[in-house]
């Protein structure tokens, strides 16, 4: 399992850079992860990230954009505005979670 330094600390990541240990994540690390992909987090971003982490804790897998809309109440359009181009992948990355199933 590769280790890399993000936000001044070492974290475990997979070959694509996704955290492999969600317990290593916190909101400061989220800021560093977002910055690495060109995002500046707002409170609205953080609301989505908190939903994703809470949902992951109960479901055991990362929510898809459809679930983020249906269960989290964040419309798909908003997800694309906050996390442009590939929202599910970017949301998971910044939330310190595995890439959702079906993401390429």
Automatic annotation (TrEMBL):
Gene3D superfamilies: 3.30.1420.10, DsrC-like protein, C-terminal domain (1.10.10.370)
Compartments where found: Cytoplasm
Gene Ontology cellular component terms for the protein in this record: cytoplasm
A biological-process GO annotation: tRNA wobble position uridine thiolation
Any GO molecular function: sulfur carrier activity
Catalytic residues, chain numbering: 103
Keywords in alphabetical order: Cytoplasm
Pfam families (UniProt xref): DsrC
InterPro entries assigned: DsrC-like_C (IPR042072), DsrC-like_dom_sf (IPR025526), DsrC-like_N (IPR043163), DsrC/TusE (IPR007453)
Family: Belongs to the DsrC/TusE family.
PANTHER family (UniProt xref): SULFURTRANSFERASE TUSE
Protein name stated in the entry: Sulfur relay protein DsrC
Species name: Cellulomonas carbonis T26
């Amino acid at each position: 399992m590769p280790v890399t330094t993000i936000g001044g600390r070492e974290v475990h990541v997979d070959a694509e850079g996704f955290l492999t240990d969600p317990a290593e994540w916190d909101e400061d690390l989220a800021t560093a992860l977002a910055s690495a992909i060109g995002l500046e987090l707002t409170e609205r971003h953080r609301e989505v990230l908190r939903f994703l982490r809470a949902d992951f804790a109960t479901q055991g897998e990362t929510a898809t954009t459809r679930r983020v809309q249906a269960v989290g109440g964040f419309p798909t359009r908003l997800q694309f505005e906050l996390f442009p181009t590939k929202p599910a992948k970017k949301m998971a990355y910044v939330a310190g979670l595995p890439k959702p199933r079906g993401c390429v």
